[in-house]
Amino acid sequence: MNSQKFLKGAFAGVSLAALLAACSPEQSTGQAPPEATEAAKVSSPADRPATDEVIYFVLPDRFANGDPANDRGGIAGDIADHGFDPTHKGYFHGGDIKGITEKLDYIEGLGATAIWMTPIFKNKPVQGNPGDQSAGYHGYWITDFTQIDPHFGTNDDLKALVAAAHARGIKVIFDIITNHTADVIKYLECAGPDTGKVMPEQADCPYRPLGEPKYTAYVPAAEAGIKKPEWLNDTRYYHNQGNSTFKGESSLYGDFAGLDDLDTDNPEVAAKMADIYKWWISEFRIDGFRIDTARHVNDEFWQSFAPAIIEHAKAEGLPNFYMFGEVYEFTPKQLSHFTNVAKLPAVLDFALQWTIQKTIVGIPDAGNQQAIFSTGFQSEATPKAGFAPTQALADLFDGDIEYTGAAGKSATFLPTFLGNHDMGRFGFFLRQAHPDADPAQLLKRAELANALLFFARGVPVIYYGDEQGFTGDGGDQAARENMFPSQVDSYNDNVLIGSDATTAEDNFNPDHPLYRQIAALAAVRKAEPALMRGNQRTVAAGDTPGIFAFDRTDLASGSELVAAINTSTEEASAVLAVANPDGLTPVLSSGMAELSPDGTLRLAPLSYILYRRTN
Ligand SMILES: [Ca+2]
Ligand SMILES: [Ca+2]
Ligand SMILES: [Ca+2]
Ligand SMILES: [Ca+2]
């Protein structure tokens, strides 16, 4: 059996180098590390498969302000014109692309190998009806698909970021939209005739089903020609059927609260959208696309768009171009439709996120569920308060077989995550489910979830700020705090996890316990092909909270790792279904763990351990 003192308390105050030396005996005895990552680093990051990435997901506006001169995007006038108001969570705060470039040390130190930025294309600066306006700081209201939003900098700033990131072996992933543009088009039947001004949003423009006449669409004269490329100003390239109810066909053909829904059924539109994004690949040599609102676009569009982009990237010397869609669904069956039928190479793994919510966070009492239900979890009618058994994780991973589709890609390509800019942060879910928990327990739960993310199949995504214990107050604007000192009161009163800091301060702190833990997890993952690409098999699960364990095997290198987590607040034990438990050596752990020769594992409350087979 193995001794578990090995890494007990290792996160408390030792350097990362010491930690890694301690957790990887092979490296400390001078044996060459597994070639994968080191080799990939010295060659081009483009040669590295997407399975090997650790993605850091950033909202540029909220990350770092490298150039105060661009904070208003060069737009004169007041807040309603330029959209800059650092005291309001719904407006621009000044972060930009130069800021990201300046913080590459921080991002690299975390162990990230790729940066995913929310859209950086030029947006309508401010949108919405009087009294309910907000700004395009998030980037999802594009008017010009051919240039960087001036609030974020210039195309040259982007080139500098990509060059600097690539020099460190870090990839750059864009967030793209093909479903809609900003809200410019109006309908005569709802808005009335052109007023000669920028017109308000249609609060009430009901959906008109297929088969009924479409609305009479026009571009108000005040915004004539503001979209680029030019063809986007032609209303015939849009659905023009009114606002989506997010049910039935309206989910595909309706406008997202007035955002102009493109006629993606038109093959000409598919080809033109592909041309837009091919240009960015050629011009900037970016490494991947996260695709917004993928489930609101018809399958045929993706069947044409996805292979066109992949082929183009290949021709440009980017054989591992990574594309993953945002499909806000919570079962492998629903999600895999988009890999198997729509032919997207991967989708964000919302199903794993939800399963982690049920097993590691816990479902709050009915009285406290409101925020969860308002952010998209409706797909599971009435989740029971409390904790799901570890079998829920086993069931989820059993669903991996559903992902048969696009180019034989498997679940190892799915980006995995704990929370995001729309649904809310993992720290928020924790606080909501455990309003009275002691801070140390919240930190343990966050660490446990991170460990699962890095040990299990899929490509881990860290939402910026989670590594500093950010919590937020809910979804959307409430989950988009600044890393640089914030002036938003509702951010600055948040209680962070693992830290006494507030968001009123600069939070690029490489000593935060979650930053250090993620760096350690990322380093282990990078050294182990089995964690990045290996097959996964459940070796322990049960009908209560407790131990969930799985092994990862890499056929190419012959390496095998076994990971276990304990989701219970009590010490737990389980028999691992592995051959020769004696041959397993601890690599990394967060508390007492004892593995006896018969395969029985005892694990401390809310703790994890990773073993490597050494004989
Ligand atoms: Ca700025
Ligand atoms: Ca649509
Ligand atoms: Ca519109
Ligand atoms: Ca708050």
Short description:
With 615 residues, the protein is of the alpha/beta class. It has an eight-stranded parallel sheet. The protein has a five-stranded antiparallel sheet with strand order 15-16-17-22-19.
Features:
single chain, 615 residues, alpha/beta, eight-stranded parallel beta sheet, five-stranded antiparallel beta sheet, 15% strand, binds calcium ion
Structural class from helices and strands? alpha/beta
Task: Determine the N-to-C terminus distance.
Answer: 13 Å
- Report the total helices: 21
Oligomer status: single chain
- The pLDDT mean sits at 90
Shape by Cα distribution: globular
Reported for the largest beta sheet, the result is: 8 strands, parallel
Uncertain spans: 1-42, 373-379
* DSSP strand content: 15-25%
Rg, please? 24 Å
Strand order within the widest sheet?
Answer: 12-11-10-7-2-1-14-13
Care to count the β-strands?
22
- Helical percent range? 25-40%
The kinds of small molecule bound in this structure are: calcium ion
Report on the structure:
This protein is of the alpha/beta class. Helix content is 29%, strand content 15%. It has an 8-stranded parallel β-sheet. It has a 5-stranded antiparallel β-sheet with strand order 15-16-17-22-19. Strand 16 (547-554) and strand 17 form a beta hairpin. Helix 1 crosses helix 20 (513-527). The longest helix is centred in the middle third of the chain and has 18 residues, at 267-284. It binds calcium ion (4 copies). The site of one calcium ion has 6 residues, from loops. One calcium ion binds next to loops.
